[in-house]
Specification:
The chain is of the alpha/beta class. It has two domains: 6-56, Urease, subunit C, domain 1; 59-98 and 146-265, Metal-dependent hydrolases (TIM Barrel, Alpha-Beta Barrel), CATH 3.20.20. It is 31% helix and 20% strand. The protein contains nine helices and twelve strands. It has helices at 65-68, 76-79, 112-115, 129-140, 149-159, 171-179, 189-204, 224-236, 251-265, and strands spanning 6-13, 22-29, 32-37, 46-48, 53-54, 58-60, 83-88, 101-102, 127-128, 164-170, 209-213, 240-244. The strands form three sheets. Strands 1, 2, 3, 4 and 5 form a five-stranded mixed sheet that branches. Strands 6-7-10-11-12 form a five-stranded parallel sheet. A two-stranded antiparallel sheet has the order 8-9. A hairpin with a 2-residue loop joins β2 (22-29) and β3. α6 (171-179) crosses α7 (189-204) and α7 packs parallel to α8 (224-236). The longest helix is centred in the C-terminal third of the chain and has 16 residues, at 189-204. Bound molecules: zinc ion (ZN). Zinc ion is lined by residues 62, 64, 90-91, 244, 273.
Length: 280
């Protein structure tokens, strides 16, 4: 019986440890790398790696792939570039938690004008689920049938996506879920509590942290106290806070707001469009 299911011979190997690239072979058993370097033994399948470099899968640390993953579960555009893990739910936008109103996502947005004719100056940004799902059913043959992050993870797992995904809960999504289209104002005590409960639940259900998109509605209207309060929940769980201050709208203001939010929590560094590790 063959020792390996796949043997990549004579490649230049970058093993991800930080050490210099070296020539060698890679023996794979099932879905695991079993040997690296001088590899002896037979294999069911061989690839000649001469002139090629073998590397661990890349991680896209700022991804919006979660928006598209149910439409394109094969994730071919990522895999063909060597990306095997995405950190999704960035810029405050995640696919859950949602209630009875929701938005259109990914390629479904092409049909937005069928339910909201004012595409660029919309009167509504969230729509009743039945309205969205009538369109989803007609155009794509499936519907948005989740509420919590846990529900959404189940739907994604059922689709059998071809890469790894770490997800953040988006503050834009949470704020929109709670305030719907009445978001151009500070949140009330009750609304903040409701948002906090959704964030807490999402972290418990497996989110790696929370992203905030201060350049985007409705997070543009979130004040300092609201953000600090919600970031403290993230800190409680020792998870990641990923602020975005892209600078498209009020960049300097949002940068200052993010800086003071993170400082007040004891986080060590806000970073533009990237995950900031929680260091307390
Ligand atoms: Zn982004």
């Amino acid at each position: 019986m063959d020792e390996y299911s796949l043997l990549i011979r004579n490649a230049t190997i970058v093993d991800g440890s930080g050490k210099s690239p070296f020539k060698g072979s890679i023996g794979v058993k099932g879905d695991k790398v079993a040997a690296l370097g001088e590899v002896k033994g037979d294999s069911a399948r061989e690839i000649d790696g001469k002139g090629l470099t073998a590397v661990p899968g890349f991680i896209d640390s700022h991804s919006h792939g979660d928006i598209d993953v149910l439409f394109f579960p094969g994730c071919e555009s990522y895999l063909l570039q060597g990306v095997t893990t995405m950190v999704a739910g960035q810029c405050g936008m995640s696919l859950a938690p949602i209630k009875e109103k929701t938005t259109l996502m990914s390629v479904a947005e092409d049909y937005l004008d069928e339910i909201e004719p004012y595409k660029y100056y919309p009167k509504r940004t969230v729509f009743p689920r039945e309205e969205v799902n009538a369109l989803m059913k007609e155009k794509f043959g499936w519907t948005i049938d989740w509420h919590s992050m846990e529900d959404w993870f189940r739907v994604v797992e059922k689709k059998k996506i071809s890469m790894n995904m770490a997800t953040l809960v988006g503050h834009v999504t949470v704020r929109r879920t709670v305030m719907e289209d009445d978001f151009q104002r500070p949140s009330t005590r009750d609304e903040r509590d409701e948002m906090g409960a959704l964030i807490r639940q999402s972290l418990k259900e497996g989110c790696y942290g929370m992203s905030v998109g201060l350049d985007y509605d409705p997070d543009t209207y979130a004040d300092h106290e609201e953000l600090v309060e919600h970031c403290k929940i993230v800190a409680e769980y020792g998870r990641i806070f990923a602020p975005t201050q892209g600078g498209q709208v009020g960049g300097a203001t949002s940068l200052r707001a993010t800086g003071s939010t993170t400082r007040s929590m004891g986080y060590w560094r806000p970073s533009s469009c990237a995950a900031t590790p929680a260091s307390r």
